[in-house]
Amino acid sequence: MVEKQDEMKALLLKAKEEILAGINKALKSGTETNAGEPTGDIYDQASSERDRELGLLLNDRERDKLRQIDEALLRIADGEYGICEECEEEIPLGRLKVMPFARFCVRCQSDMEKLQAQTRRVEEERSYREVSFGEEEEG
């Protein structure tokens, strides 16, 4: 068990280092492209703005992944790593190697995703009915 945690801790730290290096690289390239005077026509500027927004979105994903990695490192320190937070069964090593910050076993993760999809569908149907009724009242 200790060997598994040491191996996973090394994987998590490596992933964290790679993410931070990628963010730093993106930040440096972003400041280099924005350092000069605005160049090109309006289409070039719009394209640059779209690229910048995409970069910010990716950084949000990377920040979320960093948060998940940090939480996994805390679970290792607390001796709770590799245990499903839902059913409290051990998460298989294969899953942890693919997703070292996994908090749930495959079965529990799948159940949660199904429930979230059902909830989202019900909410979408409810908001659609509200929009439909609202339009009928106006007419």
Automatic annotation (TrEMBL):
InterPro entries: DksA_N, DnaK_N, Znf_DskA_TraR, Znf_DskA_TraR_CS. A zinc finger (dksA C4-type) spans 84-108. Residues 79-114 form the Zinc finger DksA/TraR C4-type domain. It holds the Pfam family DksA_N. This is Molecular chaperone DnaK. Residues 27-46, 116-139 are annotated as: Disordered. Keywords: Metal-binding, Zinc, Zinc-finger. Residues 7-76 form the DnaK suppressor protein DksA N-terminal domain. The keyword Zinc-finger applies. SUPFAM superfamilies: DnaK suppressor protein DksA, alpha-hairpin domain, Glucocorticoid receptor-like (DNA-binding domain). Residues 116-129 have a biased composition (Basic and acidic residues). It comes from Geobacter hydrogenophilus. One of its GO terms (molecular function) is zinc ion binding.
